[in-house]
Amino acid sequence: MYSKIFKKTLGLSFILALTACADLRLTLADNENHLASQVPTPQNIATKEKLYESTLNYRGLISLYREVLKNQEDPRIRYKLANSYYQKGNSKAALFYLQPLLSNPRFMEMAMLLQVKCLVQSQEYNKAVAEANKLIAKFPHNPDSYNARGIALTQTGKFDKAEQDFIKARERFLSDVVAVNNLAMLEIVKGEYKNAVRLLLPQYLDGQKESRLLHNLVFALVKSGDTKYALDIIKKERLNTSATDLVNALEKTERVSKGLAVR
């Protein structure tokens, strides 16, 4: 959702972070290679899983869970496998391995929700809404269901219904950061930048500095004409080495619709 200059900055920051942590990365890599060579047992499976999760190594998690499932079917591991594919961005594989869980009463709610998230990820928004409707009919108290449907509705241009879903998600105690960010993002999509600022600024002043929230707030400030405050936040939070260049780039950026948080 963000401008090219955001992506370049984040990329450079990532390179610098990797350089500074080279020794740690090598150590973690050695640990992962050692663990990967071990015969799966409950103990080393848990050890591998903890390490891979801490390093966001979804490829490692996928290999681990597939190895476990080759030996024995386990609905809990199957769900983790599907979720790892989703986190890696492979929604098609996630949906494929998720299918048996959709009829499993114990895992049905989790599986149906992940199915909706995968459909949103693969930009099948109308299908995501249809599946979310089924999910909410069966499990009406899950806040993530309303949030996911709200995102799909936003992408299909049904802003009023999307707003209702984001509010329902918040009423059901979805994280305030996620709910407020999505409500603000909806205002940004509609071009109501001052409304977005009114939603995001109190969160920021309360100490919330989640990445999407910061970027959406800066974008909304720039688009609503408050470039001075936007510059202050960019400098304070070190969002870019050149705050002025970033503001100039954002001023030329059109409306965006990809900053919604699914969780």
Automatic annotation (TrEMBL):
Keywords: Signal. Residues 1-22 form the signal peptide. It comes from the Bacteria. Gene3D superfamilies: Tetratricopeptide repeat domain. The keyword Flavoprotein does not apply. The keyword Acetylation does not apply. PROSITE patterns: PROKAR_LIPOPROTEIN. Pfam families: TPR_16. InterPro entries: TPR-like_helical_dom_sf, TPR_rpt. This is Flp pilus assembly protein TadD, contains TPR repeats.
